[in-house]
Amino acid sequence: MSEPSSDDRVTWWNEAYDEGNVPWDVGRPQAELVAVEQTNRIDGRILDVGCGTGVEARYLADAGYEVVGLDFSESAIEVARKRTDSEAVSFVVGDALELSTSDLGSFDTVLDCGMLHTLEGQDRAAYVGELASVLGDGGRAVCLEFGADAPEDWGPTPLSAGEMQRIFDDGWTLDVIEPVPFETQQRPVPGILGIAERTSER
Hints:
The chain has helices at residues 6-19, 31-38, 55-62, 74-82, 122-133, 161-167; strands at residues 46-49, 67-71, 89-93, 107-113, 135-146, 172-182, 189-198. By secondary structure, it is an alpha/beta fold. The protein has a seven-stranded mixed sheet, with helices on both faces. The chain is globular and about 40 Å long. Mean pLDDT is 92; it is low at 1-5.
């Protein structure tokens, strides 16, 4: 079976947001990411990659950060813009696998709430390479994903601790890797939190 094209994936995500079929959007920032911010592990200029309707991005902007939210779903970005009145956050349509060729600039923190677990195989390593392209030494990637014990038939591809360690192996220090809840509209599911720091240029 051939992989779906990029256009097919974009169409699927646009239809999900148009129809309101977004069970990962609980209408408030994920509690685990709020806890990370409140312990000062998020700082500087922030990229919220795969931002969806911008819930976490708006929370961080309200907390005083400059934030850029990026998603390749035009429908999601349209909703995010309509719900935002802060000048501290902007939303752009773009591909997380093409950050190195974007004109977004550099960031101190990249926030990923449920982006990495939508990817599989080589796309995961390619994506982490793209994160590295917009982070300097000392910059952090904060990733909250479905963990190994999450339902496999819900759509995302769960990540184990070993997989998280593998994809952040080259040029990163994985400071935090721990099981945490990932909230959904149905119920919390087993998640995984990874916080990785850039330690060298690739």
